[in-house]
Amino acid sequence: MIKAGIIGATGYAGGELVRILTGHKDVEIKWYGSRSYIDKKYAEVYQNMFQIVDDKCMDDNMEALADQVDVIFTATPQGLCASLVNEEILSKVKIVDLSADFRIKDVATYEEWYKIQHPTPQFIPEAVYGLCEINREAVKKARLVANPGCYPTCSTLSIYPLLKEGLIDPGTIIIDAKSGTSGAGRGAKVDNLYCEVNENIKAYGVANHRHTPEIEEQLSYAAGEPVLINFTPHLVPMNRGILITAYASLKKEVSYEEVKAAYDKYYANEKFVRVLEKDVCPQTKWVEGSNYVDVNFKIDPRTKRVIMMGAMDNLVKGAAGQAVQNMNLMFGLKESEGLELVPMFP
Amino acid sequence: MIKAGIIGATGYAGGELVRILTGHKDVEIKWYGSRSYIDKKYAEVYQNMFQIVDDKCMDDNMEALADQVDVIFTATPQGLCASLVNEEILSKVKIVDLSADFRIKDVATYEEWYKIQHPTPQFIPEAVYGLCEINREAVKKARLVANPGCYPTCSTLSIYPLLKEGLIDPGTIIIDAKSGTSGAGRGAKVDNLYCEVNENIKAYGVANHRHTPEIEEQLSYAAGEPVLINFTPHLVPMNRGILITAYASLKKEVSYEEVKAAYDKYYANEKFVRVLEKDVCPQTKWVEGSNYVDVNFKIDPRTKRVIMMGAMDNLVKGAAGQAVQNMNLMFGLKESEGLELVPMFP
Amino acid sequence: MIKAGIIGATGYAGGELVRILTGHKDVEIKWYGSRSYIDKKYAEVYQNMFQIVDDKCMDDNMEALADQVDVIFTATPQGLCASLVNEEILSKVKIVDLSADFRIKDVATYEEWYKIQHPTPQFIPEAVYGLCEINREAVKKARLVANPGCYPTCSTLSIYPLLKEGLIDPGTIIIDAKSGTSGAGRGAKVDNLYCEVNENIKAYGVANHRHTPEIEEQLSYAAGEPVLINFTPHLVPMNRGILITAYASLKKEVSYEEVKAAYDKYYANEKFVRVLEKDVCPQTKWVEGSNYVDVNFKIDPRTKRVIMMGAMDNLVKGAAGQAVQNMNLMFGLKESEGLELVPMFP
Amino acid sequence: MIKAGIIGATGYAGGELVRILTGHKDVEIKWYGSRSYIDKKYAEVYQNMFQIVDDKCMDDNMEALADQVDVIFTATPQGLCASLVNEEILSKVKIVDLSADFRIKDVATYEEWYKIQHPTPQFIPEAVYGLCEINREAVKKARLVANPGCYPTCSTLSIYPLLKEGLIDPGTIIIDAKSGTSGAGRGAKVDNLYCEVNENIKAYGVANHRHTPEIEEQLSYAAGEPVLINFTPHLVPMNRGILITAYASLKKEVSYEEVKAAYDKYYANEKFVRVLEKDVCPQTKWVEGSNYVDVNFKIDPRTKRVIMMGAMDNLVKGAAGQAVQNMNLMFGLKESEGLELVPMFP
């Protein structure tokens, strides 16, 4: 039985980790860290867990935690994990960090976009970017996994095959993303009140959202050259789900079958990436509550562009589910253990 | 491995049966019945099941089905199951009927409220009303289980202990119910369009909803005398969830502890009924996707009434989940097998 | 041109006052009071008012305001209006108070339910309860109008005729209310976040909501005797709208026509109360954005009860619209001036 | 008093026409055409109009109508208006056609995208494309106005100034659009049921939506050369509102002020187009129920692109509001008459 600790267990991603790990047959949660709710029963913060979780919330003490558990999940704002981690801790436990601290290899880029100084850049090189479908082998050997951001996961998986296969022009990529509101977290802000979000849609972070350099870095690896993109997220009146609609110019005339083959080359054997059938557009509701990413594409012969689409649950494949997928790989378990979640519809 | 067939697999309750049975380790679905979609791939009707279910939809042939499976679930409108069932079929398979056909013992009452003639009243006496927490032992021995309606499940479980213990006056019960829209089914009607339901709430079926006699019958058993109630359902702009708020006059002055003890007497050992802590009101979101019913109550000393509240997922404990719970009992499996679904929040 | 000042102009009710008064041909808003946003442009707080309102927010200075305007609307939490008002101010301006401070005639009841001491009980006797349809003549002569609460407006108007005509037993009234989320205000609280309210319904304030004594007082006037009720509000995932479903025992056997006549007696000439046609249940969406209250009823001969229903927009007839209706009466304008708002559907 | 007739009065756009014209002081509706509901009271189809509209629905008889009214609005599917119109009718009444029949000048393009034969192409040349802000003078003289589509209105107004001023490369325009569900109409289809749309987002009509050639034609006029675009609409779980996010490459390095000046050049005196302040992103909720289009932009110096955004209410500026704006121009009324609708928030 793997003993797990969660730092930041009362945010939405933390709550989803608890939901998933509770159903994981090889894991036992030993530490529900939540600085805001210390000593409060976890099930009083999330009443859905009444009679399922009996523990109380505890402080974010990574040192103490490292002695008691085998794996630590940090579902906290950027800066926290990086400020707590050290060599001694890493020698004792594996860490899956759901924050952005170790996702970006170039520390200057991180500091520029996140406006904070990185306290422990020495661990960046060894951190593995935990996009399992791309970096599976490296994840298996990692002590420290940087769990990808929600938008980067959906964007990268939707675009990766065409870029890798050289079918699209890297300089023309535009990603228009739409996210449910749980992505904004559980902080009490007027902008996230029901009446402000409901019956409303808006773009935000236009041309400066922090997930931009993370996506660019991953796409650059695929392209084999530096990639700059436009990335525009939108807030949608729904709890869960991310849909990305990406545009790029085709490098040459291609058929449906050629593009489909590119996706199949990378995903035919991937359980959690479903390449939909021709002309079926991904919908976020079809993956809700599950670890799936549904992707598909459409060629526009008029404009010689391809439209790439991807849908996933931002709290599962976009956060907690992928974190558990990484944990499974790190501990040599079956990759889908605890993640055989059937999407809930409606 | 139990072989299961579903008649009406493409309605919302049928879809939920597929979701739950897909995750049930002892069951294999052999027949996806759907007259409307014969020969269409099931996963084209419910794209969430893409790469999970490969079968095609089949006709509603109960005779053929009886030879191939161990249990049949009928998730169809009233009248269909009753018109298909016969002694030969019942001698071959067990049936869990999610329609109202076998829920009401008095056939005249059924025919009056449902405005149809019952084609096979001879099977009504043996049918067991599948409210597992109340009729567990009878369910275990049944060939034919009448799976309770969504409102009756939530209403009966919320009120039962106080009526059984003689704490409330049976003549004063009023049930004000609120349901998500999946309860209205997947038929294409203007009234159920997004724009008609969203940002709106209304009562419907006032003083004549068909679940009224079903609730009255169950409460009458608890009271030991005939019970008449007022029952008013409302349509709420959400997909899933039923909340009932019930009112009754207390027969005598009682303390919080006495009423709590009444609930605990019946539910302390029930996995799927959670009696919440003092002053915590049930919320439908806390049970979404799970088989739980959350109940609680509040005494109003000013009016000498008690307010009883219950929340559940109408498609799970109110339909497919309870059907699987019944199947587990009928086949001697662990009652919660396949139903250890952690509620999803948010 | 009537000069108006608003204290609390940046809450949802205050915002609705601005929306309505902006379209009122006899009124000019001179003061947008908002302690939280002093010196900020009003249209930056509510961007819908961009290029419509150019003013900045100002402090809540009632003394200064009294010298500059003809009428003050206080759309603030309880206690504020009562603490600011004095004889000098009342000699200069008329006040429509949207808070609860002057609604309840018995100061002890107010203090018990609101848990605060009333600072100026001497003004309670002269304050007129501004339910226009009931107290029209008194409102016309008032200096100080207590604008009714949202739930009390909808509840009282739905039940009043039957109680006044002696058709129902005052001791049996139960009001089950459902409200959109704007009723909870614009304060940043976790409970009102999008993800907490969406796809969810719950009761709150069970047996102790502060609108209870206000409703009881008004119903007592109608009944001619003290009335105790059960009142249970619920939070519904929608922005606007209140629906109440009320239950009472009939004193004698009555026909549909008799009950209809009772409603028509009081409302046939009322522009803003619409008694719907037989068997049509009120829906909140049908009154959204307007000052209408839609009411109807259903007799249940089985239980000898009547179910009374009412629907309105909580921010219009339940707050700002009724406040303007009161202002119109106080200044001798046409009662519906500025309120000829056609409900928006969908 | 202008007498108006509506063909297709019971669709959502038709209903919105009724709402707006009911509040228009110079117009009287004489004909509520609705083939589906002939002889049914209009207020029974749209209960929000109870006691506001007393008329019954009538047939779609344009000949009869032409003798009785001054202006006909056709809010019907494509093909209907074109099949009914003739010279005699146009000699008697003015027509505002809300369908696509007369929007596209090249009949072959119309027939290719709409898959129907145009029955009266002889009237296409005289029809004026009723985008008031662009074609105001022509509209004033028109007998037949083609009211623009919802997506084309929002797209064109958001992009027009930059294209007209030569700031962006016409070959690089990508429009990613998001619409509320009322745009899909009131037809009873499974895809538009509450449970299918709620908690979900999807793209549809990818690379082949019918509004594409309409947008391209308008943008071509602005660019002075043929323009091909990518246009991807998405269905958002909300009733009303369209948001477009458009991308284009800048032809040269420009400052915020230069781009702002381009927008101001065309819109500074336009009542219904609001160019928001720097860094404020349009939100659909800020224009709900009103005739406004809110536009803004953001320059991305990294990619040398500009992101253009526009938000409006699809049923008002995107349909009925713009139709009334056109009617006002055609009859020499104040352009904003009946359209001084303050956006409703929340």
Automatic annotation (TrEMBL), chains A, B, C, D:
* Active-site residues per Swiss-Prot or TrEMBL entry: 150
Enzyme class of the recorded protein, top EC level: oxidoreductase
Q: Which UniProt keywords apply?
A: Amino-acid biosynthesis, Arginine biosynthesis, Cytoplasm, NADP, Oxidoreductase
Known catalytic reactions: N-acetyl-L-glutamate 5-semialdehyde + phosphate + NADP(+) = N-acetyl-L-glutamyl 5-phosphate + NADPH + H(+)
Pfam families the UniProt entry points to:
Semialdhyde_dh, Semialdhyde_dhC_1
Where does it localize? Cytoplasm
Is this entry keyworded Amino-acid biosynthesis? Answer: yes
EC number(s) recorded for this UniProt protein:
1.2.1.38
Q: NCBIfam families, from UniProt?
A: argC
Tell me its family: Belongs to the NAGSA dehydrogenase family. Type 1 subfamily.
Purpose: Catalyzes the NADPH-dependent reduction of N-acetyl-5-glutamyl phosphate to yield N-acetyl-L-glutamate 5-semialdehyde.
Please report the name of this protein according to its UniProt entry: N-acetyl-gamma-glutamyl-phosphate reductase
